[in-house]
Amino acid sequence: MKIVHIFDHSFPLQDGYSARSLAILQEQQNRGWEVLPMTGPRQGSDRDGKEKVFGMEFFRTRNRNSFLSRLPLVKQFWTIWVIYQRLKSVVAETRPDVLHAHSPALNGVAALWVARRCKLPLVYEVRAFWEDAAVDQGTSSPEGFRYKITRALENHVFGNAQQVTAICEGLKNDIDARNLCASPVVVIPNAVETARFAKPLPRDQGLAAKHGLAEGMTLGFIGSFYDYEGIDLAIRAMPQLLKIHPEMRLLLVGGGMQETALRALVAGLSLEKKVIFTGRVHFAEVEKYYSIIDVLVYPRKSLRLTELVTPLKPLEAMAQKKVFIASDVGGHKELVQHGETGILFKADCMDSYVQTVQELLLSKKLQEKLKQQGLDFVCNERTWVKSVNRYQHVYASAMAATS
Length: 403
Hints:
The protein is of the alpha/beta class. It has 19 helices and 14 strands. It has helices spanning 16-30, 74-94, 105-118, 130-136, 145-160, 169-178, 194-197, 205-211, 231-236, 238-244, 259-268, 286-291, 304-308, 313-319, 330-335, 350-362, 364-381, 384-389, 391-402; strands spanning 2-7, 34-39, 49-53, 56-60, 98-102, 122-126, 163-166, 186-187, 218-224, 249-255, 275-279, 295-298, 323-327, 343-345. The strands form 3 sheets. It has a 6-stranded parallel beta sheet with strand order 2-1-5-6-7-8, with helices on both faces.
């Protein structure tokens, strides 16, 4: 089977979206399927060409700088047109059996046009509703025209794709409620490369010393700095925690649009020596940072986006046998068994966060239980072999619907 995947972006750009994409491609290759990944103009490529990443060839789409690409709303349709033109040429060159478009809806619409033109089955995968992410970033509002247009475009794809998949039950339930899909929505959940994390690295003493971290007293977040991640709550809680645990530190690994604001918050609270920013680290170096963090924190805010979407990071923590606390938003509750694989605290509540951190630090027995049961969960339930296996039925159904 030959599959063209249409992504928004991919490695070497690093985030959860890229990590999921790469894992899917690698596991599909392991199954003997031929994967042909393509990225849109947001990858930032300067030409329509090919680029080899992790031994895999990606079709790139030139980021065409046009005045149309700078006009509000118009740029979304311009992006669809650019992706459509590039995808037409990729399909003509590769002659795939299936088109598999991944969020956002701009990819879905462009792929739908090509699928109709070339009489190919289309699978559309929803990883999040990007209009909700735009609300969090302050570039849209639920009452705004842009929000409504984006939602309408996605609904159009839902009603015309042969198969629709989602990464979690929260998204599936929302799509089901729209009553647009011809076939049942299939959940292809996030998973983890258990082979990669099978033997967690021992504590990197040199790296810990570099950042002045005391063993047993390091909280940490590894990921992209978006507002919805709630990293500001973890920072604001540090003065309370430091009164009880003066050696405690908060290690923030990564970067993103909120970094400037977070650094300003740290400076305003005079926490420069207590909250450490590492900047972005290479994908291959991430495990070293996991090794020096004692408790990972995922203080996501309660928003429509976080209530619906499950993140990838808690699964990586479980696979690394790391303990973590997470806010009780819907995306976390779908993924985490409270007291069994992780600990949940009340979202947006600093007192609950502080109390939960203290209780976890004081109970070594609970920490060991969480580590083992978290590892058992990902090894038994959340491997990419299991998740990707579900595509077999999805692709077969999509092809049958167009035959």
